[in-house]
Amino acid sequence: MTNSPATAAPNAASKPIIQLRGLQKYYGDYHALRGITTDIREGEFFSLLGPSGCGKTTLLRCIAGFEDWSAGDLSIDGANMENVPANKRPTNMVFQSYAIFPHLSVAENVGFGLRRARLPKEELNKRVSEALDMVGLGGYGKRAAHALSGGQRQRVALARALILKPKVLLLDEPLSALDKKMREQMQSELRRLQRQVGITFILVTHDQEEALIMSDRIAVMFEGTIEQLATPQQLYRRPVSRKVAEFIGIMNFLPATVSRADATGIDVEVVGLGRATIAAEQCPAGAKTGAASVGFRPETMTVLYDNDPVPASGQIVTGTVAEVVYFGDMTYYDIKLDGVEKPISISMRNVVGRPVLERGAHARVSWDNGALVLFC
Amino acid sequence: MNLRKLFRSEAASGYLLLSPTAIFSIVVMAAPLIAVVLFSFMTAGYLKIIWTPTLANYVTLLDQPIYVTLMMRSLIVAAVATAATVFSALPIAYFISFFVPPERKSLWLFLITIPFWTSYLIRVFLWKVILGYNGVINSAFLGLGIIHEPMTFLLYNANAVVITLAHAYAPFAILPIFVSLEKIDRSLLEAGQDLGESRFMTFIRVTLPLAVPGVVASVLIVFIPTVGDYVTPTLVGGNNGQMVANLIENSYFKLGNYPLGSAISVSAMGIVTVICLIFLFLNRRFLRSRS
User: Fold this and answer.
1) Phi, psi dihedrals of residue B47, rounded to the nearest 5°
2) Closest Cα to residue A279, out of A166, A369, A170?
3) Potential cystine with B257: which of A34, A265, A325, B44 (Cβ 3.0-4.6 Å)?
4) Which of A57, A93, A98, A103 is best to mutate for the B interface (most B CBs within 10 A)?
5) Does any CB of chain B come closer than 8 Å to the CB of residue A146?
6) What are residue A190's phi and psi, to 5 degrees?
7) Does one domain contain both A273 and A298?
8) Do A234 and A12 form a contact (C-beta atoms < 8 A)?
């Protein structure tokens, strides 16, 4: 109900290009991958998101052929990849350090993988300059690789990988070394490139914002397992666990008690908010009666100004403003609801005619049942 | 007044601080060098030097085949010894850099320096024991019945000089190559394979070119001193293994002809300098600065 068709991957119906079945990886005693089973679809922008040490890079390196796995199966385009070395796989990688060959020129870097195709010289030069044009580096071919900026190195790494027309492009934290402005520019450029070439991109990142912006689907990983695999909207609105909710953006949590949970809905008593009836799908992990917690995003609550009418669908609770941070376009409030110890965060868009409440002021907060997520 | 001002200036105090080392360098390095160059244009008289500038010594060097022959032999022996040293050092450096776990690397480098614990002279003598007529190799082969009389081509010729030099200079060649291999970002090798090349081709196309600065350093470090090596040809070279340094020693101390000895020294230095510059020029592509 909450997921409109637009949120799904554009090629949602297409066949899987990578199939992972119970993939396990041990480094000595350390259990880096704990049974990864999932399909990555043809032509989608797929992200592996998680904190450092969650196994996302290990999984990417298994797909690329730089790591062996301890158990399970990995197939790419229907072919089992066991004992297939990296140079025989239909994948190419953009490394975190870019791994630009320092002894070669830009054109020699980009054409590195074409040696084995034994193309005539004009054909080779044509393909290299096409690849450089595609990443916006037309005319840079003769430059020495060590004379490039970070963003340019990244583009060379992309051109060098894409020129080989891989079935899957692997990106290992490709934007982490760039400054903020460059990173934002590359995010949209990568997205554009992916649509243009139409192949599967698999991005490893620890930056949730980056994953949300770029991906068709995101696999959130913790401690060697995929905690949730969903579209960015599903992930943000309906996280399956508090862990995912805390990792993606900001979420407020309040203790709650579930008194009824069935297919028609869930009755829940939330500390500070009161009684609410929510839809079954608002507890994506499955609800059961008893103690639980309820989460909601800061922007789903509204701080009402004196004369604001009560919204039709909303209920109202009261509290006091514990902290105000004015941010120009936004104001961030910490509000202590009556009867709740820990303040909750609420973000409000600043609009004309709406003053910012001061610290210690009395606040009325309206909220919507539909914004709640239940974690049992 | 002005003097005090002068001594207070930064440049002056800089030169003052520099002067002990500067004077030391001039006295122990530049002065002998200048003296040798000057001597090479003089003429040896009976028990004295005739101070009239002349090119006669250099003409002698070109005239008499012995000098050209020994210079050529020195260059060839040094080149072969350098090639042998660097080619055997490369796999060792590669092994330590790529296959020895990081915490063991310093132990391995330490072990490589063990030959330096004994004097060079003793190491050369040990090669005499190994290569000699009744030496380790001959005895072993005789005992095994592979040969019926001792091999004589092992000792007292240019081969023995090459073997001994290659062994003696191995650590000097291993260390610079090791350093340049250590500097290679390992993700470059993964990138090579990711782009479709086998391990071997990645080695040829990525590792080797990036190791060139270390190889060049090794070549220079081994070649320059071995051209002028004196002890090794004296002890294991025999008559046909004599090199240019023996000739210089002969001119100075046996013939007492300082000017001729100096001329040989100066031309040897000049030739080695030119060869090294040509070598560096040929490898300039790989020696460009990198970030």
Assistant:
1) 60, 15
2) A369
3) B44
4) A103
5) yes
6) -60, -40
7) yes
8) no
B183 lies in the same domain as B84 = yes
Whether B268 contacts B228, CB under 8 Å: yes
Which residue range forms the structural domain that includes residue A317? Answer: 250-376
With CA atoms as reference, the chain A residue closest to B213 would be: A103
Using CA atoms, how far residue B168 sits from B112, B162, B163, in Å, is 11, 10, 9
Minimal-distance CA residue of chain A relative to B197: A87
Give the lowest-confidence range in A18-27, A43-52, A226-235, B13-22.
B13-22
> What's the number of CA atoms in the CB half-sphere (13 Å) around residue A8?
11
Spacing of C-alpha B203 from chain mean position: 27
B46: in domain = no
Handedness of CA A251, A252, A256, A259 (dihedral sign): negative
Q: Is residue A7 part of a domain?
A: no
C-alpha B171/C-alpha B238 separation (Å) is 26
In this prediction the ipTM stands at 0.83
* Consecutive H or E run containing B280: helix B258-282
* CA dihedral over B121, B122, B126, B128, signed as positive or negative: positive
Q: Is A214 at the interface with chain B, CB within 8 A?
A: no
Q: What is the pLDDT of residues B144-199, one digit of tens each?
A: 888 888 888 888 888 888 989 998 899 899 999 999 999 999 999 999 999 999 99
Q: Which of B173, B159, B155, B131 is nearest to B73 (CA)?
A: B159
CA distances from A280 to A170, A188, A264, A286 (A): 37, 36, 7, 8
In-domain check, residue B8: yes
Cα A32 from Cα A305, distance rounded (Å): 51
Q: pLDDT per residue over A111-145, tens digit each?
A: 999 998 889 999 999 999 999 999 999 989 999 88
